[in-house]
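Final report, section 2: Outcomes. Of the targets proposed, Putative beta-barrel assembly-enhancing protease is the one most frequently requested by collaborating groups, and we therefore present its record in full.
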Amino acid sequence: MFKKTRSLIALCIATTLSVPSAPLMANTFDLPDIGTAASGTLTIDQELQYGDAYMRMLRNRAPIINDPVLNEYVDTLGHQLVANADDVKTPFTFFMIRDRNINAFAFFGGYIAIHSGLFLHARSESELASVLAHEIAHVTQRHLARSMEEQARRSPVTMAALAGSLLLAIAAPEAGMAAITATTAGNIQGQINYTRSNEKEADRFGIATLSKAGFDVNAMPSFFGRLAEEYRYATTLPPMLLTHPLPQDRITDSRARAQSYPQKRVSASLGYNLARARVVARYAGIKSDAALDWLSRREEKAPQSIKPAMQYGQALVYLDNNQLDKAAPILEQLHQMDDNNRFYLDALSDLYIAQKQPQKASSMLEKALKSEPNNPVLMINYANSLLAQDKFEQAIRVLQRYTHDNSNDVNGWHLMSETSIKMGDSQGDLAARAEILALKANWNKAIQYYTQASQMAELGSLEQARYDARIDQLLVQRDRFMALQ
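The predicted structure is given below as tokens.
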């Protein structure tokens, strides 16, 4: 469902993340233990507020991938790691940005972004997990807050000014970068040293998390070493190497740490390779012939267990190019092999709708929903199949439940808007569009749309009361958001 340069925002956040801090103590290496500092100057609640604000600005400006299947995969992988991380104090949100450059970054409130380009360079799930584990450690060890605390200590600037500069950088990148430059002009060598300390600390905690989560701990030094070698003589480095420098001593240190853990052989992950194939087919920015060639070449060399992923990727290319006769036999065979696989269910649902047989999609998804009644991928596809059959009332009921459980997913609100329009429900359309605008920090427009919906509703009705209550909530959120800048 939902077929579908370097990020200044990501660089700004990640660059700020990679400055002053101090290392913690390792299990087997002598490093000073200073705990997770910064709690005295920036509370967890404040971090959550800033994180929510940054995320809303990113939704408005960054090419975020709103793909239910990929979102589920990345979220599941990320939380598998979080469950095995130490010092977790915030919820975590994982999301993808459509960008072929290799990069990942973390910011306040447990938000972690990965570029789609990572899937093109990470050769295994353990390698992707090593990047996520590293970013999780940046959050759990509060590197951004500690960095800002150190900068505030060195110069006559408050934590609020530094945090406000970060928010300004997302709202207006040029002004924001100037503000950050003005407030962080300290000892450059000291910043480099602190950056290296942060990166080594994140590696150390990341490797520990990888081990406890059951991944190959050697994936981190292997992936980082390969990147360093590949770009050793490059004049232009990918963002990840600019914000996460890879000097030889860091690679050597991570390799030594990995060797101190029990070695585990991890089988190739079908889920990772399905996600990778989906990225190649839809988000790599390459032509169909090139995507088919990439998938075909890897299918020849792949072990039998992951060949279905390459076939799935080929089917997506055919599906997106309306070559339904080529996509259908592949997807139907894959579904027969694994009828609960949500990658296959999602693509097969799109296929049936494209074939003008949306009822087949509904029947298939209803069966799957009996086992997983609240699964986001199944629910959003089910609502889409109902919409394709003009079953608007039923679709609305599914979407009301979906948006209640997944209020930050714009997909649900877009479908709610589309369904409301087809029903002739202008109020529902305005409310759904208002929620999308609020998710992108366009508070005034969101409030305007809800006000219009309230004016259309019957005086004193439950609908009008609901719209008015939401307006009050949005006014509070807007004022809180503006106060952060």
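DSSP finds 24 helices and three strands in the chain.
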